Fold:
Amino acid sequence: MSEINEEAMRTFTNKDGREFRVALDFPTAKRIRDEVGVNILAGKNGEGFKLLADDPIALLDAIYVTVQDQCDACGMTYQDFGRSLDVKTVGDAVDAFMAAFALMQPDEIRDLMLSAIVQGKELHHDAMKYLGEIDADRVLLDQLEIAAKAKSAKLQGATTPTTLN
Structure:
């Protein structure tokens, strides 16, 4: 798949701007099994990997195992790593992990998985763009409503007789 940059797909950046490259090979898969308790290569049809998808904490633990050497090199602990992620960067880290996992699969499965990851990112981008447009429309509507209420109040104030006591 020449149109997909497999190397770039295995990288993500935390909220502090530090870039990580997910390194997943057989020894790392064994470390994930030993440290996280999930054999991501077990079973047919990705049953082992599905176990991680059902447990976000185990998935982040597995991601940490794949970047632990990089964390150790910069003095980043497990807790530091976890705190360096937010909603967006967790999604990017999961995508990078999925890409690294895909690269361990036979060619036909690998190509399907990588294409699915790319399409998922494109759909996410399009959805976020659309939500941003909706949000901008909401802000405009809110501003128009505030202006209409202010004008209505001003008009009512001008036509409402005042009483003197």
In short: The longest strand covers residues 11-13. The mean pLDDT is 79.
